[in-house]
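Email to the structure team, subject: ESYT2 protein model.

Hi all, the expression group asked for a predicted structure before they design truncation constructs. Nothing fancy, just the C-alpha cells so they can compare against earlier work. One-line instruction: predict ESYT2 protein, return C-alpha cells.
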Amino acid sequence: MWPFICQFIEKLFRETIEPAVRGANNHLSTFSFTKIDIGHQPLRINGVKVYTENVDKRQIILDLQISFVGNCEIDLEIKRYFCRAGVKSIQIHGTMRVILEPLIGDMPLIGALSLFFLRKPLLEINWTGLTNLLDVPGLNGLSDTIILDIISNYLVLPNRITVPLVSEVQIAQLRFPIPKGVLRIHFIEAQDLEGKDTYLKGLVKGKSDPYGIIRVGNQIFQSKVIKENLNPKWNEVYEALVYEHPGQELEIELFDEDPDKDDFLGSLMIDLIEVEKERLLDEWFTLDEVSKGKLHLKLEWLTLMPTADNLDQVLTSIRADKDQANDGLSSALLILYLDSARNLPVSYVLIDALLS
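Reply from the structure team: attached below.
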C-alpha cells in the first residue's frame, strides 16, 4: 500500500498543509511545495486498540500506534523572496484514530473512513536551508517548532481527514461532527513546586515563576505567570470542546519562565472518560515526571442539550460565577457549517489571480 499512501500524502501536503502555511503569515503567502517524495521506507503500525464499550453500533473505532522514520526529499520555496529550503528526513510518532462509519448493509459495508491524531504527534523534521528561510523579513521571529505546529495541528482533532466510500453518505456530518461535550477547566493553584531559579552560580536555590499550558486536542491555553512563587494561585477558567471519547485526554504541563529556556515543573494526563462519568472533579493531582509538586483542578463536564429549555437556569448560574473567566463562561454553543458559495463576483476572482 505504501506507494499509494505516498500519493495520498502528497495530495494532503498540497491541498491542506500548503494553504495552511500560506494563511499562517502574510510573508508566507507565496509558500509552495516544489517536490514531494516521501521515500521507500513504509510507515509502521506498532499496535492497534479496538474500542468495544461506549461505542455506537454503527461505527468501529481503532487507535493505531503510528511510527514513521524515513528518508525523503521535499523541496519548498517562497517565491516572493526567492527563498528555497528542503526536508531530508521526517520522523512522526503518535496515536492515530481511525473511525469506520456508518456501517451499512451493502458492500463495501463501510460508508466512510475518518483519520486524525487524538493529540499532537511527535514530529521531527531534518531541514536543509531552513536558516535562509528564517532570515526572510517578517519570518525571523518564527522557528522550526512553529512550522511544525502549523503542520501537525492540521492533522489533530478537531481537524480530520474524511474519505467517503459510498455516494449516499452524509460527508458533512462526519467531517464536522457536533462535539460530544464541553470541558470546563478551573486551573486553580499548585503546591510545593520545585525551585528552578538559582543564584550565586547555583549555590543558592530560589523560587520559580510558574505558568501552565493546557491542551485538549489542538486547543491550547496558557495561564498567566506567577512570579517567584512555589505555591502559585492562578484561579483561571478555560473551556474546551471535546469531539472524541473514549481516547481524548486533558494534558497539562507546568513550566518556570526564564529569559532563555523555560524549565519543566511537571505534567498531568487525565482521561476525559473519568471526567464525563463523574461530571465534576475537584481534586489535588500529583505532578508526573518530577520529584514533587501538586496541582489543584476543578473539572466540569457539560453536555450539549438539543433545546434551549434550560438556558435561563444556565445563565443564572453563570452570572453567579461571572468573575471566573476573563471572557466569561459559555452558556450555549453555536455551530456554523459553511457549505458552499455561488455566483461570486468574477472581478474578485480575476484580481486574486493577478495578485497571486
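The longest helix spans residues 2-24. Residues 83 and 268 are 41 Å apart (CA to CA). Ping us if the truncation boundaries need rechecking.
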